[in-house]
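Appendix B. One record, verbatim.
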Amino acid sequence: MSIVLKEFKKEKLEGIPEIISDLLNIRKIYTQEELDDYFYPKLGKLSKAENIGELIKIKERILDIKKSGEGIAIYGDYDVDGITSSVILANLFEKLEMKHHIYIPNRFDEGYGISQFGIDEIEKLGFKHIISVDCGITSYEEVEYARSKGIEIIITDHHEVTGKLPNTLIFDPKLYDETYNFHDLAGCGVALFLFMNFFRRVDNLLKKMFALTAIGTIADVVPLRGDNRTIVKLGLDALNTMEIEGIDALKKVSGIDNERISTYHIGFAMGPRLNAGGRLESAQYGVDLLLGKNVQENAKFLNDMNNERKELQNTIFEKAKEMYNEKSAGIILSSQEFNRGVNGIVASKFVEFYHKPAIILEDVDGILHGSGRSIQGIDIMSIIAELKNLLLAGGGHEMACGITLKRENYSEFKDRFNKILLENYSEKLKDRVHYADIVLGMREFSREIEGFLEKMEPFGIGNPKPKFLIENIEIMQDVILLKDKYKKYIAKQSGMRFNMLDWRGKTNFGKNETISVIGFPKFNTFRGVTNVVLEYIVH
C-alpha cells in the first residue's frame, strides 16, 4: 500500500488561499467564471429541460393523454432513486390533475425493471399508458409485449444503453455524450427535468422536488458535477430551510432532525432507511412516506427495517467470509442463505476489506440472483457484458452490477470472470495506491480554509472530499476506544496537539509511533471548547 500525491496543472486563483486554489486546480477550475459556477451553482445555470427534444415529445404525449381523460401509471424501482423518481412524477400528475398510480415491482418476486407480470398488473388497474422512471432502457421485449396488449410505455431512465432500444418515446441522458451537463443525471434527475418541462416557476413545490432529487441523486452515487451539482446544492438548501412532512419524519427517526443536512446524512442515515423497505419487504412504505401518507408509522417501520437489514447483512457477511478463498482474483460467492436485498451491501464490504471486485448471489431454486461491486479502474459491467451468454439478465455500470443466472452456469461464470480479471486487470489488483490531493500541515488549517472547504461541498463522486496528506504525526498515548467501535488518538505535529478520529475503527497505532496519514481536518466544538480534529481516512 502506498500514498501518491496527485499531479495537476497549477494556476493560482486570485483572492483564494493557495491550499484551496490547488484543490480547485485539481478539479480543473482555473478561471473566475469556472470558480463562480462551482462555488455558487444557480437554477439559471441548470440545463433547460424545455430545450431537450425527447423531453418535449414526452411532454406533448402526456398532454395528449391528459386531454383524452385517461390516466397514466408510473413504473418505478425499489431503491431510493426509483422511489424519489416515482414521487416526483406523482407530484407532476397530481398538479396536472391526471389520474395516476405508482407501481413498484417487488424485488423478490419480480426483480428489477419492467416485466410482463408488472404490465399485466397495471392493466388490471385499468391503465393503458405507462411511464417508467429509473428503469426501462433495456426493456425492448417488454415494450413490445405491452404494445401487443394495446398498452403504451414511455421510457425515462438513466442507465447505460445496451442492446436494442425500445421502440417508443425515450429520454435517457446516456444517449447524449459526456459534454452535456445533464449526462450524469440520476433517475430522479430525469424525473425533475420532466417536471420542470411543465413547471419551472420557483415555488415551494419545485423546491420540494429539488429536495427529493437531492436525496435520490446522492443515494444513487452518481457524479456530483454538471447539473447534478446544481441540483444537490439547491436540494440541500431546501432540505435545510423547508418543512417537508415525510422527510422531517425520516430525519427524526434517523436522529438527525437537529443537524444541518449534508450528503453524509443522506448517504448514511436517510438513504439506508428509505432503501430498507425495498430491501426486505416493500418499497411502498418509502413511497407513501414521501407522499406524506401515515408519515409517523411509515418512518418508524423503515427505521425498524433498517435495523433488521443491518443485522442481516452482518450475518451474511460473516457467513460469506467463511466461504471466501483469498487466492481468487475476484470474489464470487453463492448460497441459499444469502439474501438479494442486502447482497449489494455485502459485496461492498468485501470490496472494502479485500480490494477486489465482488459478486454475492442468492440461490433460489437453482436461479442465482446477485449484486456486484468493483474497485476503481476495473469496469465490472464490461466484464459482465463479455459473459452475457451465461446470464439470464444483467445490467449496471462501471462500479456496480446486478445479474441473474442458472446454477448450472455458476462455475463457468466464476472461472471466466476470474480469468478476465487476471488477464486484463492484474496490476489493478496488486497494490492499493491511495491518492492524496496536497500536503497539509495542521498549523496551516484555519477558519478561512474551513469556510472555503464548505463552499466546495457537496462532496461525492465527481467532486470528492479533499484528501490531505498529513505527515510526521506523533501518537502521544494509547488509543482510546469510543462506543466500542470508534478510535481516538491524541496526536501531535510540529508541536501542535490535536485529536485524530478513526470512525471505522480499523487502525491500531501505538504510543510514540510516528505516522503519515491521509485525512480531513475540521473544527469541532465540545462543551464550549473549539479544537481542530483530524478525521483519519487511510495511511
